[in-house]
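On to my pick:
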Amino acid sequence: MQNRIFEIQSEAQFESLALELFRHQAEHCAPYRQYIELLGIQPDEICSVEKIPFLPIELFKSHDVYCGDNEPEKIFTSSNTGGTVASRHLMQSLAHYEQAFTRGFELFYGDCSKWSIYGLLPNYLQREGSSLVYMVDRLIERCGSGGFYLDEYEKLLADMEADPKPKILLGVSYALWDLAETFSPKLHNTIVMETGGMKGQRKELPKAEFHKILTDAFGVEQIHSEYGMAELTSQAYSAGGGVFRSPKWLKILIRDVNNPLKVTCAAARGAINIIDLANISSCAFIATQDVGSTFADGSFSIEGRLSGADIRGCNLLVQ
């Protein structure tokens, strides 16, 4: 399965592999199996993607969501914004993670070696267990140029100015805002890519308003975005306008905010469910706390977060 998921070419292939992985995880991932049992669902009766039960993402905070054959090579953790309990993603194989994020990146941006990647991710660098830092570090290594920066904005800008290669400035939102506000540098031959939100450091703004601040300051036409999370193995990317596209092994579905078991593959607006088939050793079927829309071409947008504390259904397993 590990290699087959990256060769998906059709919806039929995706559905076949999703159902195969569902049956495996429904048996071998203990928290997922227990959740399914408490819902009263029989796995062998699930015959379509829309009927697969999605594990509330909150359970990554309270349970080891894992079905690997061996001990995990790495445990990634969420950023734990606001002092909440961090999620834990037990990763059986770092080689598999690297294959997933490299193939995903190159689907949208081409060969890594043509880029320099500059990471402006201070809050991620200042803690242990960030999957984003691991990903960016390995991509920088594949690029052969770029690097990480905390608040060394002048050095960052000088290094980018001296770099003749096309560049990606990948930053957490509040750090990009700080850079824009302090220096308003006009960047050349550069894609600006934001991720991670404000992390409580600055006021949250509507995405269009925030992107306007950055495009004006950096002199670029669009702001790209990366959508990922500690509980996933794969990422989606936006080339502007807040519309994300994902690799063929990652699919976004919409669930009814008032009925978490009602899920649709059609274009709709509601709470975001994710099928990440690269989550082969944890759980590939996750009900997130994000709200957004899906579109007819398979793209999607993220509009915010669900109000309230936990996703309905979490109390089935969280004591």
